[in-house]
Amino acid sequence: MSYRRRVSPLHAARAGAACAYCLALAIAALTLSNPLTLGAVTVAVGAAALGAGVGHEVRRAALLGLPLAASIVLVNALVTRDGLTVIFRLGDLPLLGHTDITLEATTSGAVLGLRALTLILCGALYTTAVDPDQVLRLFRRVSFRSALTATLATRMVPVLIRDAGRLADAQRCRAGRPPSRVALMRAATSGVLDRALDVAAALEVRGYGVAHRPPRWRQPYGRHDLEFAASAVAVVALAAGARVGALAPFQAYPSLHAPVGGSVLAASIGLLACALLPFADRQGIER
Amino acid sequence: MPLRARAAFAALATIATTALGGCGFGPGVGTSQVTLTVTRGFGEQQIGSTTAKHVPGSETVLRMLERSFTVHNRFGGGFVESINGLSGSGSRRDWFYYVNGVQAPQGAASTAVHKGDQIWWDLHDWTATDSVPAVVGSFPEPFVHGVGGKRLPTTLECGVDVPAACKRVTAALTTAKVPVSSQLLGTGSGPDSLGVVVGTWSDLAPEVAASLIAHGPSASGVYARFTGPGGHSLQVLDPQGAVTRTLGAGSGLVAATADSSSKPTWLITGTDVAGVSAAARALTPGALHDHFALAVQGSSELPVPSQGAL
Question: Each residue of B217-230: pLDDT tens digit?
């Protein structure tokens, strides 16, 4: 999973706006706890991924995140002693003692799991839809050496993935028993160190060590920059408003309180609309 | 055995083990007539009280509390921090609970509620001791419904010089429909029986329960002690363990205590025969209500520990 320029409004937006958009969705996921509004944020992230043409990559991330979410639900249900509505009695268990599964602990775990999954999806959307070089350019003036190090690190990851693929191909073509994992690890590590030495030598020869703070990089604001920036602001404002104004209340303990009233529905629909409206504008991005 | 048959056998074995282990869907069978009382200052001030005619299955002490009061807890429900906004955080005060007048050996989230239980939460100072094994404020519990849902036999031991007090204590227990077996003083009630001992302090001094009280609140959880030759005066302590009042001849004490390996023993004792008689007269639900222990002198009653100064 890595960034590749695609034909989408999110890819057309500058890195700062796209970054703020992904961050706003993550903030909304962290702020809201009502299952309906949190679910709306999750749907918004998924729909944004589809709108940005990275649905396949984000789906893979979701499949990786699902076991984590499920384990959060399970652990919370087993460990938390709170909640009034017993839905399953497990009796006395080793280490855990007397254990009752309550509706409240299960629901609370489900909310935590959904939040973790949504944050993973936000991370996947960021990775696949925001140009890392542009992000690093944003921070280059703040700390040049840190930006250079981060650039090299992010560039090395795809290179190492390709190396791993080549090693795997070679392993499959080799007759007889496959080599041990230790041997593969040794080969991969020595390859990484060789590459690191090469990169360090190239940087020294090119004089990066004496480089100064680069000049400001100016780029005119486009329509997609403004739209995604406005969307980010609207999503954060709506999430904060819903939290402060108790528009989407949620209380897990001691008894479950998760109303699905007009305000909750309005907040959910508003979040979806604010997050997805920028994708309706495809002007200037079609090839 | 084919693989499918083995899988089916394993599934059946798992289901059977689960069912036998007390597992099941839903809360299970409920219970009834459970009383919950919340107080502060060793029962000095009542915050609330409720009696549930029907209690859902799988009810724990913590769930019962959360149904009637606003509770904040920590460690996933393992430790109650505040009830109705009253918290002991920052000082040497915390919430403690007793079921049928007996300190529970585990957390409230793990203690099941049984029929007729009297649950008592109290916010109090634990400077002198953080363990009060038994209290008298839930009388006639634990004699009626027992401990942990199990009714226990009650043995009564009386000193030879207090037949009137012994008769009164027997009557009080009989009124509560508690069968009592009498035995000689000093016989001991055994680890699985509730004991009631009646006698002057000088007669009871060799008893295990009395020796715990003699060692102070940290050993017995009772904030009172007999002093002087033959225990002729009764000192009542405050929550910090300091003496606030000293009662002379004719004073009595109703208290309960236990060591780590046995069920509670109640002491109906006094400085002399008159004191024992006064203590025996105080063995009523009304007089003992919400008290950790009770000192008496004549007709006046003094809750123990004492909150007032000399």
Answer: 999 999 999 998 88
Same domain, residue pair B208 and B279: yes
8 Å CB contact between B171 and B182: no
**Interchain CB distance below 8 Å, A86 and B67:** no
Please tell me whether residue B98 adopts helix, strand or coil conformation. strand
The strand pair at B31-40 and B118-125 is best described as parallel
In a domain, B142, yes or no: no
Residue B79 lies in a domain: yes
Distance CA A81, CA B77 (A): 5
Laid out side by side, the sheet with A86-93 consists of: A97-102, A86-93, B24-25
Confidence of residue B309 (pLDDT cuts 50, 70, 90): very low
In terms of domains, do B293 and B171 share one? yes
Which tokens in the block code for residue B138?
Answer: 């839930």
Residues of A in contact with B58 (CB under 8 A): 86, 89, 100
pLDDT at B142: 95
B176 lies in the same domain as B108: no
Final residue before a domain boundary, out of B109, B125, B141: B125
Q: Which range marks the domain in which residue B214 is found?
A: 154-304
- Residue B82 sits in the same domain as residue B23: yes
> Is the peptide bond preceding residue B179 cis, with omega within 30 degrees of 0?
no
Same domain, B207 and B279: yes
Residue B195 lies inside a defined structural domain of this protein: yes
- Does B15 score more than 90 pLDDT? no
Query: CATH number for the domain including B79?
Result: 2.170.130.30
Nearest beta carbon to residue B28 from set A89, A92, A253: A89
Cβ(A76)–Cβ(A105) under 8 Å?
yes
| Cβ contact B27–A89 (<8 Å) | yes
In DSSP notation, B5-25 reads HHHHHHHHHHHHHHHHTT-EE
When divided into structural domains, chain B yields a total of: 2
B145-192 tens-digit pLDDT: 999 889 999 999 999 999 999 999 999 999 999 999 888 888 776 778
Stretches where chain A sits below pLDDT 50 are 287
Q: What is the pTM of this model?
A: 0.77
Once rounded to an integer, what is the mean pLDDT over residues B84-111? 88
